[in-house]
Structures are given as structure tokens and as C-alpha cells.
Amino acid sequence: MTNEAVYNVIGIGVGPFNLGLAALSNPIPELKTLFLDQRDGFDWHPGLMIDHVTLQTPFLCDCVSMADPTNPLSLLNYLKETGRLYKFFIRESFFIPRKEYNRYCQWVIEQLPQCRFSTQVMDITYEEGLYHVMTIHTKTKETTVFKTERLILGTGTQPHIPSFIPKDDSRIIHTSSYLYRKEELLSQGKKIAIIGSGQSAAEVFYDLLQNRNEETQLGWYSRPDRFFPMEYSKLTLELTSPDYVDYFYNRSESVRKTILSKQQAQFKGINYDLINDIYDFIYDLNIDNADPNLTIIPNSQLNRVDNSNPDFINLEFTQLEQEVPYDQEADYLILGTGYRYHEPAFLKNIQSRIKRDSSGLFDVNRNYSIDHNGGEIYVLHAEVHTHSYISTDLGMAAYRNSYIINDILGREHYTIEKKIAFQDFDVEKYADLPTAKI
Ligand SMILES: Cc1cc2nc3c(=O)[nH]c(=O)nc-3n(C[C@H](O)[C@H](O)[C@H](O)COP(=O)(O)OP(=O)(O)OC[C@H]3O[C@@H](n4cnc5c(N)ncnc54)[C@H](O)[C@@H]3O)c2cc1C
């Protein structure tokens, strides 16, 4: 079936980023939009919706507030409408539970009929100046073609499993499916190994630590030389700013790569309080010098996983500074090995419209478009290499969405801050002065 309507924008994927775009474009009557998602409804990282975990970003990272605090789809309005605003006030924390964020996003979707679920995008073609988006309804299997002037790709990232990890072994799981397997892990895992130095690995380790029975031995291994915290000091947080996007974008491809390689602690570490909670929990276990039944080893690279023995998995590590190889056994291996962006297969028939850089990655324009005309195909969360790590940050989503909406409209509908940081990332203006004065 072909839907004869022509949309100005079709967003593919309704994760938080495209949901924000749907919410911010909602009050603009001249934008006819449609947002499609293959899932049956919004459910934010359900395999990691561990009790009591919170967002890592302040609640103002909701769908709309940083672009338009008066928009009725704000988190504060959600709290007001659901009778929770006073409780939120008394709680006095900027960091809401992830469960509440999930519920808030579902509430936003209830008010946006342009978000359609159970609709998977299979293919896209370009015909007579329009993109034809072929979809299949995941339940009825009905196929529909939607036509649009522009696409916004918001398909997110996928769990990353290193290529040397054996496939199809149910004893090896990624943190993204942790909660689906938690009961089994707790009841059957005598030895559980967790790999990774990021937030997900730490959350899973802490949850198992609190819920395991006494015999279950936990091992936690990380490649970096320590379990380091995410950097939240305020002058570093200034890198989460429009100024920094401009600065980063204007560097060469090779300089950007170097910058990204140095920004591990800023985006990839563990929440500072969580590290301390883990330590304090272990401290309690160790009262009277009791054995906490744990192995925690940094500086360890996992090189090989041998799953040929049905009774246990053998993990082969190297301690990188000592250059000493060592082995560990586990009943279950949990991989906190992060997420990666994969280009969606549905782009195959419009590849010729997409710009590439020297590495074959999307050559993303400053306005977040990737097409040769510079305003037809936009990406969300696929531009770390051009717009920096803050592309992954919920706190900057409203900025990016404002930028894209303004670009599509050809006018500044949403005010975009240009310089918010006290520090200068770019010194061009000083270099132009005859004498640089402090
Ligand atoms: C556990 C966890 C916690 C996080 N917490 C924070 C945090 O506190 N603060 C922060 O700033 N960032 C956080 N992040 C990082 C980031 O904000 C999230 O990953 C966020 O979900 C990214 O949103 P997204 O819209 O890019 O993608 P996703 O949420 O992954 O959504 C993509 C959607 O695209 C759909 N899709 C894919 N292909 C198709 C197709 N062919 N057709 C139709 N639909 C399709 C999928 O079904 C999915 O619903 C967290 C990440 C994780 C994993």
C-alpha cells in the first residue's frame, strides 16, 4: 500500500533523540512529520532498567526543556500532571530515576500520534524528488510506503560484542540483556565474570553484588589501569556545549580522532557515587576481615574466551603493565563492552545520495545532514566523529534537534545559544589581535 500523503520529515527510530525531535516539531503546523519505530512501544534499555539507577544527566535533558522550557511536554509538566511535582521538589535531585524517565517518555508519546510503533523500515528509495520509505507492520505484516522530503535517522546504537567472543553460547551475555537473565545468573551462577570499565558493567556488578547468594563468586575485569569515574567537574562539563560542538567540528579529521581518543574519562567512565557505593558495600562485607568472595582486576585485556568445556568458560587475560598472561574460569561471562553505531541496511538504495569521509564514515555537515544537497538526510547519534562525544548525550539532544528544525524551516524557530562556556576553546579571535592581552 502507498500512503499518498507527502511528509516534510520522516524520523526513523523513536528513541529519546527522535522523540525529542517529534516533541519539538509538534507545535510547528507547517511541519508534517511521521516517526516510525519497529518496537511495539517505547521501552528505554529494558535489560538495564535496574532498580534505583538514575539518569547520568540532569532532568532538564528531557525532550524539550533545553530548547523551550515552556513546552507542555517538559518533564516538569509531566510531574505536575501526574501529581508528583511536590515529591520531586522535596527529593531535591537533578537526577531522576531511569524508570521515571522511561515513564515520562511514554507519556510524551501518548500525546504525539505522529509516533507510530510496530513499523519497521525495510528500504528507502529516492524517486522524483522524494524519499519513499518502505515499511512492514511487524504484527500484521502489511507493507506501506510513505513519501517524504527529508529523513531523520535515529536508529541508535547496538550492543557491541568483540569478534573473538564465541557466538551462540547462552552462558555469554551482553549487559544490555542483563535483567532478562538475572534470575538465572543468581540461581545458577557459581562464578560470574563481568568485563568492562563503563557504567553498565559497574551497574551490573553492583546489582549482582547486592543480590547474590554467599557462594556466588564475582569477578570484575577492566582493560584501563583503574576503575575511573566519569568526569563531572564543571569546567569539563563546559565541553557539553554549543561552543564545543563548533570548535570540534572545525578541527581536521585527524585532530578530531586524537581528541576523541583522549576523552575516555569524560564519557566512558563510571558514575563517581557508584564507585564509592561499590567500595562501601565491599567494605561492609569485609568486616571482621571476612572474605568478600570477589576478584577485581584492572589493567586486564581479555584476549580469548574458550567455551569448549561445557562445565565452565575459560577466560584468557593479559595484565597489560606486567605483561603477564593469566586465566580465569566462569560459569557466566557478562560483557560490558559498550555499544556501536551500525549503518542501517535500509540505506542501501540511497547510498549515492550520502556523503562519505576518507574513512568511509558519514561526512556529516554542520547542520547534521549527510546528503550531498546538505538538507535531506539528517543523523542523530551517528556523528561522534564530526560533532564529538556529546552526540550521545541526552543533555545536548534538544540543541541538535533545534538546529535541525531551524535548518529545515530556514529560520530560527528555536533560539540556539552560540556561546555558553566561560572558557574559550577557539583562540582565533586572540590570534587576530596585534597583542594578546590577558
Ligand atoms: C543503559 C543506558 C543508560 C543511558 N543513560 C544515559 C543518561 O543517563 N544520559 C545520557 O545522556 N545518555 C545515556 N545513555 C546514552 C543514550 O542517551 C541512549 O543510548 C539513548 O537511548 C540513545 O537514544 P537514540 O534515540 O539514539 O537510540 P535508541 O534509544 O537506541 O532508539 C533507537 C530506536 O530505533 C529503532 N529502530 C532501529 N532500526 C529501525 C528500523 N529499521 N525501523 C524502525 N525503527 C528502527 C529501535 O527500535 C529503537 O527504538 C544511556 C545508554 C544506555 C545503554
Q: What can you tell me about this protein's structure?
A:
The protein is an alpha/beta fold and 438 residues long. Helix content is 28%, strand content 21%. It has helices at residues 16-25, 75-81, 85-91, 98-110, 178-188, 199-211, 234-237, 242-249, 253-261, 264-268, 272-285, 384-387, 397-409, 428-431, and strands at residues 2-12, 33-36, 115-116, 119-127, 130-137, 143-153, 158-159, 172-174, 191-195, 217-221, 294-297, 300-306, 313-319, 324-330, 332-335, 339-340, 377-379. The strands form four sheets. Strands 1, 2, 3, 4, 5, 6 and 17 form a seven-stranded mixed sheet that branches. It has a five-stranded parallel sheet with strand order 8-15-9-10-11, with helices on one face. It has a three-stranded antiparallel sheet with strand order 12-13-14, with no helix packed on it. Helix 1 crosses helix 13 (397-409) and helix 6 runs parallel beside helix 11 (272-285). The protein is globular, with a radius of gyration of 24 Å. The N and C termini lie far apart (66 Å). The model has no long low-confidence stretch (mean pLDDT 96).
